Amino acid sequence: MKTTSEIRSDFIEFFRSKGHTIVPSAPLVPANDPTLLFTNSGMVQFKNVFLGSEKPGYVRAADVQRCLRAGGKHNDLDQVGYTARHHTFFEMLGNWSFGDYFKKEAIAWAWELLTQVWKLPAERLLVTVYHTDDEAFDIWHRDIGLPVDRIIRIGDNKGAPFASDNFWQMADTGPCGPCTEIFYDHGAHIAGGPPGSPDEDGDRFIEIWNNVFMQFDRQPDGTLLPLPAPCVDTGMGLERMAAVLQGVHGNYEIDIFQRLIAEAARLTSRSDLDNKSLRVIADHIRACSFLIVDGVLPSNEGRGYVLRRIIRRAIRHIWKLDGLKPDGTFWKMVGTLVEVMGDAYPELADKRELVERALRAEEAAFAQTLDAGMQRLEGYLQRNGGRIDGEQLFQLHDTYGCPPDLIADIVRERDSAELEPSAMEDYERLMTEQKDRARAAGKFGNATTLPAELAAQLPATDFLGYDKLVEGGLEVLA
Ligand code: ATP
Ligand code: MG
Ligand code: MG
Ligand code: MG
């Protein structure tokens, strides 16, 4: 059986042998784009290369990019624990052509890696192409020999042509183009239809690799001009590929996750290893640890607030499984994470202590109010016949530090409970009103943590000053 580490290096070695320069992963906090919350795909660090304002010293590159989809345009947080294939944090393997090779080579190499190096049975694979991309269709059919019934054209059947899944664009204008996605059929015993079918959201056919062909420059009036130098941008989910190669269906069954889940089970004294909460905890420890490694700390704003919400969600799941322990539980997962991912990411081992301290402090802070918050939630649910409104969401957040998506997560677990349709909207309004009042009273929302840039510069063993920062965080929660 191939380990996830071996698959990671197989990919890199394969593309190295095809003349690609190996580029390190960029951090989760994008260096070149203040408008983007997190690095959500491999292309983020190459954005300016596609736009032509930056020229790297190579035309072919390959990398393993750490990604987070837990906020902003791409948000898979609500999928975690519910699908076999979604994480908040995941690793995206990618190969890139900057005006060098194009569709023919990209498709041929993808096929070679999958069917010759990794020896996947061809009959388990199927692909989608953009509905008008005859070129890609023909390469799959004529060069590769894939039968036409396993090349699915995806186009405007889901609405506007360019809102569809198989046309990729970075923004409303700029580089864009069609893509071809490769799916693996996990077998008829699993519910779900092929891509483009009404039940495509099931988990039988799982998308493993997206190959984007950037060939147009979209103008403000919507017209598509051909790019002088077409590019290739691909993304393969490492965990999904590991599931395929390890002969399991879901990402949570792969080696890395089995270790993390076993540790979460041990720490919460559970033996039901397929428990959804254990999966959530295993997913969230990766997202939270890598965010802290990349310079984010829990706070009430921006990136830090996303981190805070993910940590609190994880802690709520721990609470649900086993109650809260005085010395915390979530932060104790870091050691196992370092064991399973520290080789590939030495920075994780280097900053282990910072990560543990930050998680521990947040856990201690939240533990003070979580129990009371949960009791209050039960009271609301009984009083309202299982419905939670915006005012209640606001109270739960304001008084007990329970973010609204955490409450939504609980409500979703119960058949008898739901959010009022306007709850989130009303909550946002109440939050804005509260901020306005604070501003009018001259109380500026204090930055609850050290600026991320400073935290990132903290030497791993030097935590002078970090305690102060943690106290600052506690103050806001009190
Ligand atoms: P899906 O349709 O399954 O949500 P996607 O089309 O959103 O996937 P892309 O944006 O094309 O995914 O990203 C490229 C690859 O990254 C995917 O083919 C998949 O292998 C992987 N991937 C995407 N989102 C996730 C996630 N949340 N967790 C794990 N892997 C992911
Ligand atoms: Mg998706
Ligand atoms: Mg998709
Ligand atoms: Mg895709």
Question: If you had to describe this structure to a student in words, what would you say it looks like?
Answer:
Helices cover 43% and strands 17% of the residues. The longest helix is centred in the last third of the chain and has 32 residues, at 352-383. The strands form 2 sheets. Strands 1, 2, 3, 4, 5, 6, 7, 8 and 9 form a 9-stranded mixed beta sheet that branches. The protein has a two-stranded parallel sheet with strand order 10-11. It is an alpha/beta fold. It is globular, with a radius of gyration of 23 Å. Adenosine-5'-triphosphate (ATP) binds next to strand 3, strand 8, strand 9 and helix 5.
End-to-end gap: 50 Å
Helix % is 40-55%
| Counted beta strands | 11
What ligands are attached or bound here? adenosine-5'-triphosphate, magnesium ion
Task: Give the class from helix and strand content and strand pairing.
Answer: alpha/beta
Give the SSE order as H and E letters: HEHEEHEHEEEEEHHHHHHHEHHEHHH
Q: List unreliable stretches of 5+ residues.
A: 159-163, 445-478
Q: Biggest sheet, open or closed, and with what strands and sense?
A: 9 strands, mixed
Proportion of strand residues = 15-25%
Approximate shape: globular
Radius of gyration: 23 Å
Helical run tally: 16
Q: Whole-number average pLDDT? A: 89
Question: Which helices and strands, and how do they pair?
Answer:
Elements: H1 4-17, E1 21-23, H2 47-51, E2 60-68, E3 89-98, H3 103-117, E4 125-130, H4 134-144, E5 151-154, E6 167-169, E7 174-185, E8 205-218, E9 224-237, H5 238-245, H6 255-267, H7 276-293, H8 302-322, H9 334-341, H10 346-350, H11 352-383, E10 387-388, H12 390-400, H13 404-413, E11 418-419, H14 423-440, H15 452-457, H16 466-477
Parallel strand pairs: 1-2, 4-5, 10-11
Antiparallel strand pairs: 2-3, 3-9, 4-7, 6-7, 7-8, 8-9
Helix pairs in contact: 3-4, 6-7, 6-9, 7-8, 7-11, 8-11, 11-12, 11-16, 12-14
The protein binds adenosine-5'-triphosphate and magnesium ion (MG) (3 copies).
Adenosine-5'-triphosphate (ATP) binds next to β3, β8, β9 and α5.
Subcellular location: Cytoplasm
Main location: cytoplasm
Domain Alanyl-transfer RNA synthetases family profile: 2-478
